[in-house]
């Protein structure tokens, strides 16, 4: 089966269109509905609504586009789950303001958030503030619109940017609840279990300490204040932040649920130079000799998802939403399909562990895979790193017809949804 795009690409715009969801959203959503999707996660591009990011008035054409997307979702009975900022701080805010290092971005973001909350009131119940907000510690430009290389940023500059994002996130939560008390707002963090490479307590402590730098983002979102271990880190490393009394009050606007991405786990050691370092991901870490890895070096650890679900639930007692999980692979299109049994196995094994966590008593709101359709990978800027149930004829050089093809996993996932997981193989 193929679905042609509604507008053919030209030589001039091939490399700028991605998978051209802007023009194919109706056909793509129809395919999601065919799979039985109950929820579809997508992001609103901040720069579509405020092209520079600092305008006083929004761009009506951008708002109208998302009206049309929501129309299609409603037609098919699919619940939207919307991310406000998914690695796309408007470029003018990065280049002219210094990205999230600049406090002014809090007000710009708040104006954007209020605009879309108001526009889509009653149509979108579930919102996420920032995608993988803790990734700014590792990729400041991707996650924070900061053009200065990570190694040239002082720790104070980096954590000041983190603070601005945390305040903006809490302010958006406050605004959402003012606009519509029925709105549920969640934070979104990159979840990654960290295991000590062996039983040496020093390795276990390193794993715990590095996990805390991820936990901190959830702790602040859920508890409304900075945890003691992070304040200690600031004191001992000379990190000074401008945190106002107003900031502290805003941070008390805590989230309704916690969402996260999960792809892999890593090992940690106090003497990492004595071990093999993992490759292919934003986080690093030491290779776990007990696990296999994807083609991009991401170690495959389904049990780690159950561990994370239990740890987050025990720590925060907030409903959890797995909003990203999937396998990036070099799919081969043959006879108008892809035999992606490796993806089926990956997702099957992870979803089985989600079921185990639910039996453990964890409250899981839902699961959305990354991604339901092939798209450009954020970590590598490649189309050839494919995640979807739907193959898009698009190559790394921008060539391709943009036609859509159902992979083998398409029908498999349809059965998983229809059976509410009963078709999974333990």
From TrEMBL:
One of the GO biological process terms: carbohydrate catabolic process
A GO cellular-component term linked to this record: cytosol
Active site: 324
Superkingdom assignment: Bacteria
PROSITE patterns: GLYCOSYL_HYDROL_F1_1 (PS00572)
Pfam entry (one): Glyco_hydro_1
Record keywords, A-Z: Glycosidase, Hydrolase
Any one GO molecular-function label of the UniProt entry: beta-glucosidase activity
Family, as annotated: Belongs to the glycosyl hydrolase 1 family.
Protein name: 6-phospho-beta-glucosidase
């Amino acid at each position: 089966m193929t679905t042609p795009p509604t507008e053919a690409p030209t030589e001039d715009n091939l490399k700028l269109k991605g998978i051209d969801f802007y023009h194919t959203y109706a056909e793509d959503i129809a395919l999601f509905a065919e799979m039985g999707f109950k929820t579809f996660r997508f992001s609103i591009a901040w720069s579509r609504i405020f092209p520079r990011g600092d305008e006083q008035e929004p761009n009506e054409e951008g708002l109208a586009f998302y009206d049309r997307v929501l129309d299609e979702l409603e037609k098919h009975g699919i619940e939207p789950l919307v991310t406000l900022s998914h690695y796309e701080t408007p470029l003018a805010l990065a280049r002219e303001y210094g990205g999230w290092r600049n406090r002014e971005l809090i007000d710009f973001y708040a104006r954007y958030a209020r605009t879309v909350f108001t526009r889509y009131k009653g149509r979108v119940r579930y919102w996420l503030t920032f995608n993988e907000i803790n990734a700014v510690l590792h990729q400041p430009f991707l996650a924070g619109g900061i053009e200065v290389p990570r190694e040239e940023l002082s720790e104070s500059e980096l954590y000041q940017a983190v603070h601005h994002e945390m305040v903006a996130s809490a302010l958006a939560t406050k605004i959402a609840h003012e606009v519509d008390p029925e709105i549920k707002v969640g934070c979104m963090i990159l979840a990654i279990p960290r295991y000590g490479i062996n039983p040496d307590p020093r390795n276990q402590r390193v794993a715990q300490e590095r996990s805390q730098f991820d936990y901190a983002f959830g702790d602040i979102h859920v508890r409304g204040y900075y945890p003691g271990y992070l304040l200690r880190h600031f004191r001992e490393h000379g990190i000074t932040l401008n945190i106002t009394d107003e900031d502290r009050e805003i941070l008390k606007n805590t989230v309704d649920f916690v969402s996260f991405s999960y792809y892999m786990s890593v090992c940690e050691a106090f003497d990492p130079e004595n071990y093999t370092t993992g490759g292919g991901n934003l986080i690093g870490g030491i290779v776990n000799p007990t696990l296999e890895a994807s083609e991009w070096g991401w170690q495959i650890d389904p049990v780690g998802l159950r561990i994370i679900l239990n740890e987050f639930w025990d720590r925060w007692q907030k409903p959890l939403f797995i909003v990203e999980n999937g396998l990036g692979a070099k799919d081969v299109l043959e006879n108008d399909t892809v035999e992606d049994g490796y993806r089926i196995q990956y997702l099957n094994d992870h979803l089985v562990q989600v079921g185990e966590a639910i039996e453990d008593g964890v409250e899981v709101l839902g699961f959305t895979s990354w991604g339901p359709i092939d798209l450009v990978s954020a970590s590598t800027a490649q189309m050839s790193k494919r995640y979807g149930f739907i193959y898009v004829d698009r190559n790394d050089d921008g060539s391709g017809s943009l036609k859509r093809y159902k992979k083998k996993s398409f029908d498999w996932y349809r059965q998983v949804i229809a059976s509410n997981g009963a078709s999974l193989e333990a």
